[in-house]
Structures are given as structure tokens and as C-alpha cells.
Amino acid sequence: MIYCEIQNNGEVDINAFRLMGATTKDNTKIGYFGSGIKYALASALRMNIPIQIFSGEKEIKITLRKTKMRDHQFKIICINGTPTSITTQMGRDWEPWFIFREFYCNAIDEGGESIGISKTPQGIKGKTKIYIGFTDDIKDVFTSKDHYFSTARDPIYENNICKIFNRIDEKMIIYRKGVKVFGEGNSLYDYDFKNIEINESREASDFEVKWNIIQFWKQFATENTLAYLINNHECLEFNLDWGLRLGGFSETWLNYLKDKVIIPYEHSGYFADDLSEYHVTLPHKLCIELHKAFGNKLTIRGMIDNNSKIIEVPMKEREKLLLQNAIEFLKQSYYFSDIDKDFPIKSAILDIGTLGQFDNGVIYLSDDLFIKGKKEVIRTLIEEYVHAKTKSPDRTRAMQNELIEIIVSSIEEKTGVYL
Questions:
Q1: Bridge partners, 386 (sequence order)
Q2: Cβ atoms within 10 A of the Cβ of 195, count?
Q3: Residue 128 belongs to some domain of the structure
């Protein structure tokens, strides 16, 4: 039989295999729940993967004993002939590579770790040795270690918090302290985070992964990685929720982007004139966060100060004509005689279903509004202008009273009869 041999310094305490939750590690280590080795042992025995363990020169004998509970039969793991409370049903959703992972992670935590191949399992004083039978599944892990462990990979960037690597698989790989904890997504890079949170199955959540990736990009992006991001609109990083994580951007972002026109990617069609110049397109949410961080130091099309829900867009000639016609119609009423002087009127992308909005001294009309025709433009102008003039909140009695007063005054002017 050929075995994968995992070795580390020190002689393992036998209690590590029989006491659930027993661990001397804290969260600075890869595994600290006190359950991993037990799950690995149970999974290996359930999957019929041969396993032998040596603490120093002594082999820790692993056997099974059958028992019943409510007519169900279970196999209890015995350590050196003493039954534990661990059955082979533990870790039922574990994959074969988890077994390899647990023993290798434990070796890393103890120090002096090494991996090799052996045909003759034997112990050595002062060392712990784990021998895992070379089944097809274990062989695959052994021959593709970089897909599961980053320890032998060369990072293209690293600091005391994280490392990044060029991709090696169809899906993104996320490591925690060198060990794979996540494997989904079409990312630009693979990442190794020192302190990403994991559950007892040694897996990171989708939220936790994205949270840490955003932190990396905000704080540690280089000009090379930013150039790569800008030119890959389909990647996971480009489409992150950039408002998810608090914290500022490094000066690298400002230095790289300050001489460029930035266009929100989702709305680039509204800024056709800029597309012929030196520009970059970035996701709307990232544009919002950059505008919050750097303000007017960056040229970001459509950004409105203090309001991330409005994207100001150029007004087309047809829209300008429609707006002018609506204004001329309204100016026939004394109340609206200065409508085009009192407040600037601009076109914008607003929340779905919102046709108009008064914000920071400006009346914004939705770009979708102009498709609905002049009458709808007039209606929206009336509502937003009254809202702006009176400061009455929308959908309130005060707003209704003001509109009624406008109607009555208009009738008075038209008839010459004043109430």
C-alpha cells in the first residue's frame, strides 16, 4: 500500500483524537475548534481510506466497535482499544480532501511540517506522523496541492494581511493561512487572507469572502491591479457591492484615476461624448464610493454631492425641446412664471418608479420621464416645483393644500373673479 505521509514536530497527545472540542489552539492557528481531527478520522474510516497515526515511535491504534441506538447501528471509534463518543457518522458532508486538509493543517500549526510518499509506515521519536492511504481521491489532492494549499505558490503581491496569486483553476480559490476555505466565482485572482472568518467545517461564507476582497482592493490595490480591474468588466471584483465595507481608499486609487474621466459603467451610453476621450468605466457603486472618498479630485460623470441615488446625465436635444415646451405652458400661470429661474432643472437617472426629485436646490427629472410625453413632464414639474418652493413633504396634506391653492389662483386669474 502506498501512503501519503504527513509529518510535524512534537508527539501528538492521544486526547486530540478522543476528546471532542479539546484543543490548545487559539484563532491565530488554522484550526482551533477542537473537532477537525475527529471529523477527519471519522470520515476516513467511513470512506474506507486507510489511515495510521504515530505519536513518536508509538502507533495510536484505531479500531471500530459496533453499537445500536433505536434499532440503528453505529460504528464507534476506539483509540488504543478505548471507545470514544465519536462515530463514523460525523462529518457526513465532508469531501475526501477535507481529511487531507485537517491532518496537514494540524502539521502546519505544530511546525516542521512535511509531505511525502511512503510504503512503510513507522514512527520517529519527537515527531507526529499521519499516513493516509493513497486512494484515487487522496492522490488527486496530493498531486494538485496548489488547488488546496497556497504554501508552495508564489504570490504576485503580499503583505501581513493577505496574498494574491494568479488564477490556476476555473473558479476562484480563497485560502485562509494557506488552506482553501472557498472555491466559487470568476475572479481576477486567487486570494489568501490571514484572518478571514470560517465556520467549523473550515469554510468561509460568500459574504465574508467579498467583504475581505473589497478590503484588499480598497487598501492595497496597485496601479497594475487597477488596470487589470478596469479592463475586465465580467470579473467578480468589478461587480462587487463596493459600499459593503467601510473604510477609505488608498492614495493609489487617486493617483491612478485623477487624470482620467470616469464613467459609470451601467450608464456609459449617456456619456457618448466622453467615450472618445481618455476615459475609464467603473461600476456605479464603485463610482459612488470613490466620489465619497475623493470628491472633486476625481472627474466622475453624473455624480451628485451627498446623494448616491442620483446620476446626472446630459439632456438630449429632444428632451430639451420637450422641457422648454412644458415650461412655456406652465409660465402662463403666475405661480410658475419664474419656474426656469428659481431652480435649475436637470436630467438624471433616478430610482425605479421615481419620475422627479428635488435635491440640493435642483429639480431632477428622470430620463425615463421624457418618453411619457409633455403632459407627464408638466405634471412632474408641477409636483417637484411646489415641493421645492414650499418645502412640503411629498404625499402630505400640506402638499395637497398648496396644489389646491395653485388651482384656485389659476382659475381666479383666468376668470377675473377673486374669492
A1: none
A2: 12
A3: yes
